Every structure is written in C-alpha cells, then in structure tokens.
Amino acid sequence: MGFAPRRLGSIVVLAIALAGACSGSAPGRAPTSRQTTAVSPPTSPGPTTGVQPLQTPSDDSLVARSRAVQFESSDGIRLAGRLFGTGTTGVVLSHMIRSDQEPWWWMASILAEHGFMALTYDSRGTCPGGVDGCSHGPLNPGAVDRDILGGVAYLRAHGAKRVVIGGASLGGTASLWVASKRPHGIDGVFSLSAVSYFPPYDITSKLIHDIRAPKLFIAGANDPSAGPYVPKWRRAATPPVRAVVLDSGTHGTDFFDDQDFSATVRSTILRFVQGLAG
Question: What span, in angstroms and rounded, lies between the C-alpha atoms of 34 and 276?
C-alpha cells in the first residue's frame, strides 16, 4: 500500500483545523461548543494537558490495567480483545494491517484513566498469542467493518451509552466506512493515518460528507498514503469535524513511538473523546 517510512525530527504541527459544532446533533449525543477558528501551530509539540511526555509503559503494566475479553463480529467470528476501564462512553480501537491490538494499549489505558471504557482487539485471523490474543477465522482485511460492529455491540452490552470508533491506517479507514454506512449507534469516529482506499473501503468525499457523527482526522503531511486526504476530507465533511495535519512522515500507531508527536496525537484523541462525552 506504499506506506511512508517513519521520519523523526523536531518538527512542528502544521495545522489544526477546527470546524462545526455538536449542537443540533442526534439525540443522545453530548453537545460540544462551536469552534470555527484555526489554531496556530506551536513551536514544539511538547507535552499536552492530561497526557504525560513519552514514557511508554511496559506491556506487563498495560496488561495489568486491562482484562482479556472475547466477543463476536457482526457475522459471528470469535475475536480476542482487551477491555480497559469502565464508564458510559466506550471506544473501539482498530489496528493497522500486519499488526495487532498491542500498539493501542497505551492509548486505551489513557482513556481508561480519564473515565472511559476502551476496547482493543485482534481483527479476524490475527493471532499473536499469549496476552496479545488470538482471533478466529481467516485473515480478511476487507471484513474489519464487521469486526468493528461486533466491538460496538460488545461495549453497548457492557454499559456504554455512547460509543466512539477509531483506528489506525486500515483500522481508521474501516472505521470511517462504518460511521458512514452503518451509523446507528456510532456517536463519534476518528482516524489516525487512514488510507483513502482499501477494498472494499473507498473513502470518497461523498462518504465523508454522509458521516453525521462528530469526526476527527489525523495524519502526517509527509505520509503519502494518508496525509494528502485530510484537507480534502475536512472540506467534504459536514460539521462537527476536526482535522490535524502533522509535519511528519510517521504512519498510524507508529506515532505513539514518535518522540516529537506522541503527546500531540494522544492528547488530540483524548480531547476528542472527552468532548463527545461532555
């Protein structure tokens, strides 16, 4: 798919575009304030309120903050995941292709610390084993939407009154698809380096326009597989929408290992979920 290699450096955030409002949103969705002004880029991403600088917890520490769970995709495939935290707002976190749930654990633990329930999982056919889990079925990247819908149903069944879906790379692409094609029960969606096309997910301007839930797009400007699409999607999107373009070639959950942008990405996702939860 031509994903760009990681490029680290002391580079700044290019733009954070804000538009729209949550007022007038569908019943049951928490309103947020209208914001239409652009935010000037800081001289350094640096640590952000509510999120500590880059000090990646160990896998053992993150596992201790969660519990292993199993749930079914919308078409009946048994999937393995880990559940972090409790609360009435739940977040489904979907991973990149050729990856698994583990890169999302840190973000999930941060969400849990702030009062949210976060579900990471291995998509069908992904079986790293051990605490990383083992999901059933054949590997099928074109069925991630059905895995996401299973995660949404699981969180609803375990007390979530609002559910946000989000993912990295393919996981983000499939999340946008679900938010447009299966909007019932989706209260917000975010993408981290989503690609514009991965069969059968064709993320057209019309598809973005049709997403009524609040949405957040994040990507690196120098990532050719994701960066060019964020400004286009922001123009096509109906409010409320937020778009963040970083002067980086890093892709997907690799941002969480990026000394320059990890805190920015983590805090941006956290603030988005906090805004939806009111």
Answer: 13
- The residue whose two tokens read 């019932």 is 184
Q: Is the alpha carbon torsion for 15, 231, 274, 266 positive or negative?
A: negative
The whole-angstrom separation of Cα 61 and Cα 15 is 34
**Where along the chain do its domains lie?**
14-38+59-277
Banded model confidence at residue 52, pLDDT cuts 50, 70, 90: low
Domain 14-38+59-277 fold is: Rossmann fold (3.40.50)
Q: Quick one: tokens of 198?
A: 């991965």
pTM of the entire predicted model: 0.82
Environment class of 129 (CB within 10 Å of its CB; exposed 0-12, middle 13-18, buried 19+): exposed
Helix or strand or coil: residue 15? strand
| Burial label, 156 (beta-carbon count in 10 A; 0-12, 13-18, 19+) | middle
